[in-house]
Amino acid sequence: MSVRRLAKIQPDSFAFSKETRAKCDWWIAKYPADRRQSAVIPILWLVQKQEGWCPEPALRAIAELLGMPYIRVLEVVTFYTMFMLEPVGSAALIQVCGTTPCMLRGSGDLMKVCKSKIGPKDTLSADGRFTWQEVECLGACVNAPMAQINDYYFEDLTAETMGQIIDDFAAGKRPEPGSYAGRHTSEPMGGALTLTDAALYDGSAAKPIKTLPNSEPAKVPA
């Protein structure tokens, strides 16, 4: 894993919003009082949802809230790549999968579109609205190539559909996540090929069960 460092330019301060603090308290209450540090990951995530990234003053606030050394919070936030250590685009954070299945299916073309429309990867766009990254496997190989944009998966992409998605975000729209090849979840292209008999789902193929297995008490020998 590559070294991850905090951004050089940091805000002067951080404050939990009322909503974020309430959610933090909810997570802390899930653990014994002497194990409140166990809430560090969900609270880091809540901070990222509030700020868009994890600024350094927020790490100190989390350490104080959980009663744990600052270095422990820093260790966690720099280990997990889901935590952003620099500001990211306010409209869209685009994470393009570059692992083998997606690469074989054309993720390189998606990255070219991102570079053309946004700029270099891992860099905030000039207008501050977009960031794109190349990431490792996101677990949707059957729908390759794909990208995670903000919190959602966009699958079966092409250079054309990726370009349109970026344009839609730029226009303030909310593109629909999911497959862009028209398939349902991870069905084969063209639709399901097995288990297509409607009788499997309407109950007509089911046979009545007179006695449930092991439903009678065991007989005790006399």
From TrEMBL:
Name the GO cellular-component terms: catalytic complex; membrane protein complex; organelle envelope; organelle membrane
Q: Which residues form a coiled coil?
A: none
Q: Which GO terms describe its molecular function?
A: 2 iron, 2 sulfur cluster binding; active transmembrane transporter activity; inorganic cation transmembrane transporter activity; metal ion binding; monoatomic cation transmembrane transporter activity; NADH dehydrogenase activity
Q: Which cofactor does it need?
A: [2Fe-2S] cluster
This protein's UniProt keywords: 2Fe-2S, Iron, Iron-sulfur, Metal-binding, NAD, Translocase
This protein's superkingdom? Bacteria
What does the note accompanying the cofactor annotation read? Answer: Binds 1 [2Fe-2S] cluster.
Listed under catalytic activity are:
a quinone + NADH + 5 H(+)(in) = a quinol + NAD(+) + 4 H(+)(out)
Residues annotated to bind [2Fe-2S] cluster? 97, 102, 137, 141
A biological-process GO annotation? inorganic cation transmembrane transport
The record's annotation in SUPFAM superfamilies points to: Thioredoxin-like
Note whether Translocase occurs among the keywords: yes
The record's listing under InterPro entries reads: NuoE-like, NuoE_dom, NuoE_N, Thioredoxin-like_sf
Record Pfam families: 2Fe-2S_thioredx (PF01257)
Similarity section? Belongs to the complex I 24 kDa subunit family.
Write the protein's name: NADH-quinone oxidoreductase subunit E
Organism annotation: Brevundimonas variabilis
